[in-house]
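Researcher: Next sequence.
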Amino acid sequence: MKLSTVILPLEGWSISKEKWRRAEALGFHAGYTYDHLSWQRLENRPWYGAISTLTAASLETLRLKVGSLVTSPNFRHPVPLAKDLLSIDEMSGGRLIVGIGAGGSGNDASVLGQEAWSPRERSERFEEFVVLLDQLLRDPLTTSRGHFYAATDARMLPGTVQQPRPPFLIAAGGPRGLDLTARLAEGWVTHGFTSDGATCEENVTHQLGLLRAALEGHDRLEEDIAKVLLDGIADEQPLVSLDAFVDWAGRYRALGITELVIHWPEPDSPFDFDMATFEKIALEGLGQLGERP
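Model: Next structure:
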């Protein structure tokens, strides 16, 4: 099992860079950031861009993997996004992870002036977005025309450092998204929260069952794909103490989760955790489960 963190882009780089440096020193597998133009839970706080943040983080660190968690079609087009991702992969020396989701219905979904997408259109756009992004990052020259997205003689030279492309983590909870994950992704990510009253653990158990069925349908083995749980959206509290984290991590490891992602503490936010406890968890938590750093 791996342990990673999400660092929200709330401060200028002179402050934020120290968090990314510290994340590497604490031994996290990856440092992720959200790709929003603003985030509705902190919509009145400063918020910097994900692409520039990941670019700077890739130059500020040496070993830490860096990635989006997640980028979406809400305000991205696959062609310029692929060029940005190619560049970050090169700058990081091949440490980029590409987290992708369908996107939500908040400000990001309307900031460009577009009409609200129906659930069906959002799902169809997401599939087309991922398929084209996959092709762009694999091939030096892409021409493709879909219903929503197109590319004409899109050149991606010299190609990514990671071949055939950087790994995709697809955020999905339903059958269609999980099938897309099984077809194209190296990893799957969930926050385990739904509004139906089920617990996070119950939801993750159900989703993992759907994922395993989708993988079987595409002749893939379960061990071929990373299974990532993002904490902090559901109402679990694994960061209140080291013991709470060890119990939480052990339960999800038993279910089959292979990477846990915890939020970097931020005052006056939903992630207002004790920094000393957070660092203790980073340094000792997985070790108490017998996991090697």
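Model: Helices lie at 13-25, 50-60, 78-91, 119-138, 175-184, 200-217, 242-255, 275-284. The chain has a mean pLDDT of 95.
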